[in-house]
Amino acid sequence: MRWVAFDLNGTLLDPAGAVPGEPDLGRRALTDAVVLAMATNAVGEYRDFADFVAAALSRRLDGSELEEAVKRASTLPPFPDAERALGRLADAGLRIAVVTNSAGEAAGQALGAAGLRDPVDAVVGTDATGAFKPDLRVYRAAEERLEAGGDEICLVAAHAWDLLGASHAGWRTAWVGHLEGRLTTTIPEPDVAAPTLERVAEGVAALR
Asked: 9 pairs with which residues across the strands?
């Protein structure tokens, strides 16, 4: 294994930051945005993930509150241990990528705003394929970008559906429980499962 590929929204970055004081609202909006993206993907269409985030927030907010939430959603705060987790993996000699449903440029900007861009060697957004995870095309595009086979990559994600896609692509998988709390039993068991990013990083580093 050479690469650790992180999901971005909900894994490294906390969607609760979209609406300060109402963390569940931001997290529910992310879930809705993912569902909208998957549905659009299923009918063979594509649009920027940010459009789905804005649409999901507009179901809950109006006017200036909505405008501010949409802005904050593009620069979400990191989970408290995200930087330490990335550092642990880099110290172990692993390369770090982000494979996200966001567009690549927007993802890079979000990482920069969160102070996480420096340790990340590559960012792969879904605008490279015109499809959304867990569509296998996204994982294959990441393999091409990283010049790595599936058995050389471990996905770290807080979403069961992302682990499902990655496992079908032949990747190793690691689940962090800070978003879902409990992992569904309908997906293949991940190689690593832990409640925090730091503990996931320790487990992934030990897979080498």
From this structure: 13
Helices (H), 92-124: 104-113
Q: Rounded to whole angstroms, what are the CA distances from 38 to 31, 59, 62, 135, 164?
A: 11, 18, 25, 9, 14
pLDDT score for 208: 78
For residue range 180-194, what is the model confidence (pLDDT) as tens digits? 999 999 999 999 999
Q: How far apart are CA 201 and CA 204, in angstroms?
A: 5
How much is the pLDDT for 105? 97
Q: Which amino acid is at 6?
A: F
Q: Which residues contact 198 (CB under 8 A, 6 or more apart)?
A: 81, 84, 85, 88
Q: Return the structure tokens found at 190.
A: 């991940």
Q: How long, in residues, is the chain? A: 208
